[in-house]
Amino acid sequence: MTDRSVAELAQLLRSRGLTSTELVTACLDRISAVDPVVRAVLAVDDTALAQAGAADRRHATGRSLSPLDGIPVLVKDNIDTAGLAGTAGSRLLAGTPPDRDAEVVARLRAAGAVILGKTNLTEWGNFRSTGSIEGWSAVGGQTRNPHDPEHSPWGSSAGSAAAVAAGMAPLALGTETDGSLVCPAGVCGVAAIKPAPGTLPVAGVVPISTVQDSIGPLAARLEDAALCLAVLTGHPLPAAPAPPESVRVGLWHVKGMAPDAQETAERAAERLRDAGAVVVPVELALPRDMLVDGLDALCAEFPPSLERYLGGRRDAPATLDEIIAANRRDPVELALFGQDLFERCAALTDEDRALAPDRRRRSRQQARDLLAKALADHGVDVLMAATSGPAWRIDDGPDPFTRTSSTLPALAGRPNISVPAGFSGELPVGISLFGPPDLAELLPYALLAERCCGERRTPAVLRDLPLR
After folding, report:
1. What are the sequence ranges of the domains in the chain?
2. From 75, 226, 316, 343, which residue has the greatest number of CB atoms within 10 Å?
3. What residue stretches are annotated with the Amidase domain (predicted)?
């Protein structure tokens, strides 16, 4: 039941072949059975069954609110839900939940979706330390990869990706500043859409940068993520893949990425060629000054973005300096890694902050020019690359440095979509598609890639369960 597409579930709910109460119960049962191992769900909403009952009454009288009416959705715990969690993974925000829903959660509720619970994340969206551990937070502990619990789920939307992969919910919301949606999706074997910043409102989201942050959906299938995004934006997205004979794809092998990820991308390219697409190699080098400008801008944008958010939370620290000081007093928070990024951001001078807007504009324009040049010079419609290498084994030290393809579209403020593409042993590897500035233009290429290249397996944590 939990493994059907959202469109199928919606049809069953409307026709009364399935009730939302039955669907939500199945999701809660799956969470009970699997989450003690995966640790993806940080909090379950006690009102989920009541929400499902309300959806059932609407369906019974033919008053369905949207294709998401009665569909369970998990929400990353840096996105506010009134009265529920809202920790960003930090013990400093674990005392008093938010008073209000984030705007995107209000849209989910207006569409009739059932807020099932909150998912674990890399603490503070993976912006506390350069030596952080993906998928770990002081509140939720270590989320694990459902395909092999000894391996990482990546992050920062670790819990959302792992929960969807393990069938705990058909949909989840995550956030991304650079890679935090597409990378966990890639290593957990699910689909994710990272829209351009501003596509969905970030009000009520614990921020890194209100300029670069983006909210997006994760699902087992790209069509489900696209449906969710269409409901939340109110703008239907195209569902039909572009004709294969008209597609030209630029394959980018990211320098330094794991060889098995590159091999997966090559196999995906061959499958696209078999479907009639033209795939040509593309070389891209990311200029160091673009990367430095982007990080410098991010560090300057973080304190004011965060402090504006904290101003709306009761019983929360008011400033970044207060958070740094409180973390130093808490042996749990700093037990595994420090807070050097926080400290770097807090130490910025007035001059650094004044230069941030120009650095942001310069970095974004460079990234956009690089994308546009790659598309034009090679005569391609879209760029494709392995999202990242496969997940690494979890141990007691900092995560290894791993190359991804997410930084260029992130800095450009462009949409990015990751879909499952293959496996390295038992571990999934995703491919990302990006380049076009408009998500409606990008989506058909990603749907085509998923149709040609998508490979799925039942995650290891589910193989011994009686699934329904």
Report:
1. 6-288+362-462
2. 75
3. 22-437
Is 432 among the catalytic positions?
Answer: no
Active-site choice (76, 132, 157, 214): 76
Tens digit of each residue's pLDDT, the chain (468 residues): 677 999 999 999 999 999 999 999 999 999 999 999 999 999 999 999 999 999 999 999 999 999 999 999 999 999 999 999 999 999 999 999 999 999 999 999 999 999 999 999 999 999 999 999 999 999 999 999 999 999 999 999 999 999 999 999 999 999 999 999 999 999 999 999 999 999 999 999 999 999 999 999 999 999 999 999 999 999 886 655 555 578 999 999 999 999 999 999 999 999 999 999 999 999 999 999 999 999 999 999 999 999 999 999 999 999 999 999 999 999 999 999 999 999 999 999 999 999 999 999 999 999 999 999 999 999 999 999 999 999 999 986 778 888 999 999 999 999 999 999 999 999 999 999 999 999 999 999 999 999 998 778 999 999 877 644
Q: Does domain 6-288+362-462 have CATH number 3.90.1300.10?
A: yes
Catalytic residue among 20, 129, 156, 209: 156
Q: What tokens appear for 33 in the block?
A: 């059975």
Measured distance CA(359)–CA(209) in Å, rounded: 14
d(Cα 234, Cα 228) in Å, to the nearest integer?
A: 10
Q: Distance between CA 184 and CA 406 in Å, rounded?
A: 12
Catalytic residue among 152, 157, 160, 180: 180
User: Beta strands of 184-224 (E only): which ranges?
Assistant: 191-194, 214-219
Dist CA 175 CA 246 (whole Å): 33
Measured between alpha carbons, how far is 291 from 296 in angstroms, rounded to an integer? 9
Pairing label, strands 191-194, 278-282: unpaired
Distance, CA of 341 to chain centre: 21
76 classed as catalytic = yes
- The span from the CA of 35 to the CA of 74, in Å, is 13
